[in-house]
Amino acid sequence: MRLFLQVTAMTMMLLLGIFLGIDSAERNIQKMEGAQGAPRAIHITPENGRVEIAVLGEVYDAEPSAGSPEPEQVKEEVREVAASGKNLLGQVGNQVGHGIRLGTRKALELVVGWLEPGE
Fold first, then answer.
1. Where do the structural domains in the chain lie, given as residue ranges?
2. pLDDT tens readout for residues 8-22
3. Residue 116 gets which letter from DSSP?
4. Kindly report the CA angle at 4 between 101 and 18, in degrees rounded to 5?
5. DSSP 4-70
6. Which domain of life is it from (predicted)?
């Protein structure tokens, strides 16, 4: 339990340090080049229902999703794929994902069980 909390805290501190370091380095590089206010390495601009993402000077448009498909249509497509038996890699991926999900739930239940006061 203690080791888990220590590892989690160290990981979060590491990620925060990485993000702060990248931001600080980018600001200092712009200051040295005399380019304050220049576009950032990653710049996200939402406007008029669209999202523009600029990554290292290249602009990408992200279109809004078309909405969720009908549940019956999804079930029918899943049945077709399962019946064809051609998507073995997808089935293996789904099984692995399901196993990871179950293992994570069990681990969280165990950790929460430790944190809860004695019953």
1. 1-35, 82-118
2. 999 999 999 998 888
3. S
4. 90
5. HHHHHHHHHHHHHHHHHHHHHHHHHHHHHHT-TTPPPSEEEEEETTEEEEEETTEEEEEPPP--PPP
6. Bacteria
